[in-house]
Design a protein that fits this description.
alpha/beta; Rossmann fold; ProC C-terminal domain-like fold; 2 domains; 11 helices; 8 strands; 52% helix; binds NADP nicotinamide-adenine-dinucleotide phosphate
Length: 265
């Protein structure tokens, strides 16, 4: 089955590269469109064999991923609309674009996937949400496709913001926290260059992920490292005081930002 990708920026490009690299789609099944041709050409060079075409042509595929920024959704849908039919599955990528709002405008079945940059490495969670016209066959197909590059988790659309903070924004939040740990260490110990501190944090996080993969949970890791009254426990006490409030502020800030965003459709 042909699969269309409208928008080959960060997420559209990543999905095409990763789905083809992991064998979920053959290059010749992929039809891609992008507003500026340079990005499209770069993707075709990176993934030989895919088809590139105007948005209106790609919109005729049986399945179409709409991978444009929320602010470009209205214009993209206007370009796509003449081609859209009831027997197609349209997949949105943005929490800001409500499935029901798009269902009112188009005849096709509508679903939503919130991918994560981690799918570039063929792992991490892809959030999946379904509109009311989606069939059991659509669900099987979409979750099967995503399973090649992620662990698909089906959620309610109302859970999208919080879950996306964990899975989709999560890599950036964790990267920022880890980078700050390395920078603080090299400020406190000026003869420890930031590059070396960063390399140490990087290796520690990769190794901690291996422990999690091996079945240890967060509490188990903390218990094994922290001796009561010891130095790790002293550090954990600082985190216990400051981190819950920081994360709550962060979750409130992303929610506020989403609620105040202009309606995209
Ligand atoms: N970035 C993330 O980590 C992430 C994670 C989860 C979900 N998302 C969601 O994924 C969606 C895409 O985000 P992104 O980060 O991939 O944005 P992006 O890098 O800006 O990519 C969007 C692409 O859409 C193209 N485009 C815009 N209008 C078009 C049209 N009418 N026809 C064809 N192509 C069109 C743009 O072309 P130009 O080359 O002209 O700009 C651009 O290449 C957004 O809704 C975002 O919320 C992003």
């Amino acid at each position: 089955m042909d699969v269309g990708f409208i928008g080959t920026g960060s997420m559209g490009g990543m999905l095409v590269r990763s789905l083809v690299r992991h064998g979920a789609l053959a290059p010749e099944q992929v039809w891609a469109a992008n507003r500026t041709p340079e990005k499209l050409e770069a993707l075709r060079a990176a993934v030989p064999g895919i088809h590139t075409a105007p948005t209106a042509t790609v919109s005729t595929c049986p399945v179409v991923f709409l991978c444009v920024k929320p602010g470009d959704t209205r214009a993209a849908l206007a370009e796509m609309e003449p081609a859209l039919r009831a027997d197609q599955l349209l997949i949105l990528l943005s929490n800001l674009v409500p499935i029901a709002g798009v269902e009112e405008q188009v005849p096709c079945r509508v679903a939503k996937v919130i991918p994560s940059l981690t799918q570039e490495a063929g792992c991490g969670i892809a959030l999946v949400m379904y509109g009311r016209r989606v069939t059991p066959g659509d669900r099987r197909w979409l979750e099967g496709l995503l399973a090649a590059i992620s662990r698909p988790v089906v959620i309610q659309e109302s859970q999208g913001r919080t879950c996306a903070d964990l899975t989709s924004c999560g890599p950036a939040f964790l990267a920022c926290v880890l980078q700050e740990l390395a920078l603080a260490a090299s400020r406190q110990q000026p003869d420890l260059p930031p590059e070396l501190a960063t390399a140490m944090v990087r290796e520690t996080v990769l190794a901690t992920a291996r422990l999690l993969e091996a079945g240890m949970d967060f509490d188990g890791i903390i218990r094994r490292v922290a001796v009561p009254g010891g130095v790790t426990a002293a550090g954990l006490a600082v985190l216990a005081e400051q981190i819950p409030g920081t994360w709550e502020q962060l979750l409130a800030a992303t929610r506020r930002r989403e609620e105040n965003a202009p309606a995209p459709v």
